[in-house]
Amino acid sequence: MLILLLFALIGCSYGIQLDNTNKGNTETEIRLKNLETLVYRQSLLLSEQSNRIQNLETTVAFQRSEILELKTNLDSVKHKQSRHGEKLSVLKKLLQKKSLDNDFLKEKTHPETPNYMDKTESRTIEENIPVNRYQRLLIGNPSSDRPPAFYAYMSKNENNHGPHHTLKFDIVVTSTDRAYSPLTGIYTVKTSGVYVFTFNIRLGCHAYGSFELIQNADAKGSVLLETSDTCDTQHATAVVVLDTKQGDVIYVRTHSSYGGSGDITSDDKGRPTFSGWLISH
Question: How much is the pLDDT for 128?
Answer without folding.
Answer: 39
